[in-house]
Design a protein that fits this description.
With 493 residues, this protein is α+β, with helices and mostly antiparallel strands. The protein is built from 20 helices and seven strands.
């Protein structure tokens, strides 16, 4: 057979090999710095910090090589730079996580209440005093308000040392900012709330005065991050409570409303949107999902300003990486984990499905399986209703949220047509709330955390990320299987 006939016979193979092959380091370099950092933080509870860092780095390098289908010129220096940056960040972050703060034996004096978590039998307060932050548990109905100044007196213990919680609980509160636990003998509020907490209270009071009940509850949750149990609990039973967490949908809607009135490019666009979005995130209480979305938006605006291409998956990875660099303990916060898993999976899988109708069904269902183990491990169980309801609730909410926000503006600012707008907003939310409650009744039941659910979650998540990085179907499936067993073994240690 001559050379020409050979070429003709191999034409399909030649055309296929000539097509551009996506490379993990070019598609998502930030992801392969985030991956070993997150893995090292996950493993450091089961093994010494040095062993955790080395295991994470070797695992990340193996995944990177496995997902790279073609080694091109220039791969080695980029790979070395990524691994060096990962090693340095792992070492610094693990040192900060494992550092034991020096605490006094007792505390007496003024403090400021940073947050209040009301529970069935007591309330957990995070109080800043003397340059330190303490977890304090207060029983009874009379609890100091968020943002208020208190006088406090009590004994100080290290987190998790009093027999009331495990190391996991201690890390949870450290992720919230606590450095120690104060057992209070006395606490009383000596001045009312000030600063951002005061503004959040004013927003809630103003919404209650100007809007109808459901509209006020939803707008308060969207803007000030204050959740009314009467509205929030039905969504919790339905598995749609994540709609109340200020995250990408809320931040992007707020940004879109501002961008509509601004020029397409320029410094004014960048400055106005940045200022408005960060003001919104601060007012909402700096939720992890909101911070991540705001950082992503900043990267996209910056990409527009310098004329660089945008990558949602890489931007999500970079935003999460910045959050961990600022505070590595964020990794142990439930909100951060749910936000990270959800945002990474959606940004990785959305391009794979494209804009077909399958994406509206498959992505919410797969996302439920990805985030279910995190929610079940913290809350004990996860409602099965969310598996079905989120298929319709998420796209419906994407329309309802901006619509209710716009309809609430006339009554909030006493504009013409206030009554009609307020009634329309209340009607929309009433129908939505009733649909959620009926759905929760129809699809009753819950799923508890188990190893099978965890393994399935890891497989789906890692397969989507590998596909997004250009690994191909077979390599992605193999990488997901290997990573699934690695994570299952690590979690069992």
């Amino acid at each position: 057979m001559d050379t020409e006939s050979k070429s003709a016979g191999n034409a399909p193979e030649i055309m296929f090999s000539a097509a551009p092959v996506r490379q993990p380091l070019s598609e998502a370099p930030a992801f392969f710095i985030l991956l070993p950092l997150a893995l090292s933080l996950f493993l450091c509870g089961a093994m010494p910090p040095a062993a955790a860092a080395l295991s994470a780095l070797f695992s990340s390098a193996a995944v990177l090589f496995f997902c790279t289908r073609e080694i091109k010129k220039g791969f080695s220096p980029v790979f070395a730079a990524v691994m060096l940056a990962s090693a340095v960040l792992c070492a610094v972050s693990l040192h900060r996580v494992c550092a034991v703060p020096e605490l006094p034996d007792s505390i007496e004096g003024r403090g400021r209440v940073l947050s209040v978590l009301r529970r069935r039998y007591d309330s957990a307060l995070l109080i800043s005093s003397g340059g330190r932050r303490y977890l304090c548990r207060v029983k009874g109905e009379k609890v100091p308000r968020e943002g208020s100044t208190v006088y406090m007196r009590g004994a100080v213990f290290a987190l998790g040392r009093r027999g009331k919680g495990s190391q996991k609980t201690a890390r949870y509160w450290r992720a919230k900012g606590a450095e120690g636990e104060a057992v209070l003998f006395e606490i009383r509020e000596i001045s009312p709330p000030k600063g951002i907490p005061r503004w959040r209270m004013l927003i809630a009071e103003y919404a209650d005065e100007r809007l109808m009940p459901l509209s006020a509850a939803y707008i308060t949750a969207f803007t000030a991050g204050i959740r009314d149990p009467l509205v929030y609990e039905p969504h919790k039973r339905a598995g749609t409570a994540h709609l109340f967490a200020v995250s990408g949908l809320h931040v992007w809607t707020a940004a879109a409303l501002i961008l509509f009135f601004l020029p397409r490019r320029g410094l004014l666009r960048f400055a106005a949107v940045s200022a408005a979005v960060w003001f919104y995130v601060f007012i909402a209480g700096l939720p992890p999902g909101g911070i991540r979305a705001a950082l992503m938006l900043q990267m996209i605006l910056l990409s527009e300003a310098v004329g660089r291409p945008r990558s949602a998956f890489n931007n999500v990875s970079a935003a999460l990486l910045l959050m961990l660099l600022y505070d590595p303990m964020s990794f142990y916060d439930t909100g951060w984990r749910l936000s990270a898993a959800g945002a990474l999976f959606v940004s990785a899988s959305a391009p794979l499905f494209g804009r077909s109708w399958l994406s509206f069904i498959c992505i919410p269902v797969l996302l439920w399986f990805v985030t279910a183990p995190v929610a079940a491990s913290v809350f004990g169980e996860v409602p099965l209703a969310g598996l079905v309801l989120n298929i319709a609730a998420v796209p419906a909410f994407a329309v309802i949220f901006p619509l209710v926000l716009l309809l609430s503006l006339p009554p909030l600012f006493a504009l013409p047509g206030s009554d009609a707008a307020a009634s329309a907003s209340e009607t929309i939310l009433t129908v939505f709330q009733e649909a959620i409650e009926r759905g929760a009744e129809l699809f009753s039941g819950a799923l508890i955390f188990d190893s099978a659910l965890f393994m399935l979650s890891v497989f789906i998540f890692s397969a989507a990320c590998a596909l997004r990085c250009g690994a191909g179907l077979k390599r992605s499936a193999a990488a997901a299987l290997i990573f699934m067993f690695f994570m299952s073994y690590s979690a069992a240690m």
